[in-house]
């Protein structure tokens, strides 16, 4: 049976709002693994402990990880080629 | 800090908490908040909860379903009382939102407590002429949130209840999980290009989204929010 123990990228909105002033979950990224394009909100998010791990819904490669410590946040975007972030006036 | 001003029991295991949040900037229907609880020893746990009400000044409503072994929900559903304060972060999330000025028909598909952000959309619809259809999947009639309010919505909002375990005798549909026939009977046809919002446990959302794309709905018009296996 498929493992359904994940949420989606909507759950990243709060944790990432500590780092970015804009809502990054609406940004469209390109997966470094398979080239799929989509919003961060559509990623599969596993966690929250020990950190949030966001995987591509197409190929399951890790796109982003976010680990929040008491004094810092560690953000790893290794699986994302680029992010297009909508900016409203 | 948010202060509890009112509590409404929705079902034996779920309740709506009404908060007063000074300085609340307002929100869009579908957005959520993160609730952070910190124990005396410094241990903290955080969960996301969808906002249930439409934008209404500094008033924020959350409906929380208790999850048996959850770290946060038992506190919110059993311990928290009127007058208590908790830490809320939000509103957050700009993806799973309905913007009231959009005009295509809206199809809402909720499983269990996945009804919560969809209810915020219905409540925000107001006098808009955007037609809504809601498919609300729930285990049995005892799990129904917002019963009296959903009974009263009429003009422009059609509601279909999909009971998965036990259906009332007059349901007109055998109990069972959501199927393609439900989307055909109670949803909008793909040709009308509806804005679709699907929310619920991960398995439910995956199943509903797959059925929608098989029926020919444009995946780009389907927005989803997955709670995980059960939420927490």
From TrEMBL, chain A:
This is Hydrogenase maturation nickel metallochaperone HypA. The lineage of its organism: Bacteria, Bacillati, Actinomycetota, Actinomycetes, Streptosporangiales.
UniProtKB/TrEMBL annotation, chain B:
Pfam families: FAD_binding_6, NAD_binding_1. It comes from Herbidospora galbida. InterPro entries: Cbr1-like_FAD-bd_dom, FAD-bd_FR_type, FNR_nucleotide-bd, MRET, OxRdtase_FAD/NAD-bd, Riboflavin_synthase-like_b-brl. Coiled coil: none annotated. Its cofactor is FAD. Residues 1-98 form the FAD-binding FR-type domain. PROSITE patterns: FAD_FR. This is Oxidoreductase. The keyword Phosphoprotein does not apply. Gene3D superfamilies: Nucleotide-binding domain of ferredoxin-NADP reductase (FNR) module (3.40.50.80), Translation factors (2.40.30.10). One of its GO terms (molecular function) is 2 iron, 2 sulfur cluster binding. Keywords: 2Fe-2S, Iron, Iron-sulfur, Metal-binding. SUPFAM superfamilies: Ferredoxin reductase-like, C-terminal NADP-linked domain, Riboflavin synthase domain-like. CDD domains: FNR_iron_sulfur_binding_3.
């Amino acid at each position: 049976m498929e493992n359904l123990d994940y949420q989606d990228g909507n759950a990243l909105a709060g944790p990432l709002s500590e780092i970015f002033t804009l809502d990054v979950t609406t940004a469209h990224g390109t997966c470094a693994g398979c080239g799929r394009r989509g919003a961060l909100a559509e990623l599969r998010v596993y966690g929250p402990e020990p950190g949030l791990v966001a995987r591509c819904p197409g190929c399951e490669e890790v796109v982003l990880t976010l680990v929040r410590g008491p004094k810092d946040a560690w953000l790893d975007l290794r699986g994302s080629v680029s992010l297009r972030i909508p900016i409203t006036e | 800090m948010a202060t509890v001003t009112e509590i409404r029991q929705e079902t034996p295991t779920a309740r709506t908490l009404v908060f007063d949040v000074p300085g609340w900037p307002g929100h869009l229907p579908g957005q959520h908040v993160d609730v952070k609880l910190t124990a005396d020893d410094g241990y903290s746990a955080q969960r996301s909860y969808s906002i249930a009400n439409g934008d209404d000044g500094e008033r924020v409503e959350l409906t929380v379903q208790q999850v048996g072994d959850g770290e946060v929900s038992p506190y919110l559903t059993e311990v928290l009382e009127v007058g208590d304060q908790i830490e809320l972060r939000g509103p957050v999330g700009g993806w799973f939102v309905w913007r009231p000025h959009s005009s295509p028909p809206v199809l809402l598909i909720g499983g269990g407590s996945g009804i919560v952000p969809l209810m915020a959309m219905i409540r925000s619809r107001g006098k808009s002429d955007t037609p809504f259809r809601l498919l609300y999947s729930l285990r049995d009639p005892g799990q129904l949130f917002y019963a009296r309010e959903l009974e009263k919505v009429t003009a422009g909002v059609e509601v279909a209840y999909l009971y998965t375990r036990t259906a009332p005798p007059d349901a007109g549909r055998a109990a069972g999980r959501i199927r393609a026939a439900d989307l055909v009977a109670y949803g909008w046809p793909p040709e009308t290009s509806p804005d679709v919002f699907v929310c619920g446990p991960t398995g439910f959302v995956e199943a509903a989204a797959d059925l929608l794309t098989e029926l020919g709905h444009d995946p780009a018009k389907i927005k989803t929010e997955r709670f995980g296996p059960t939420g927490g």
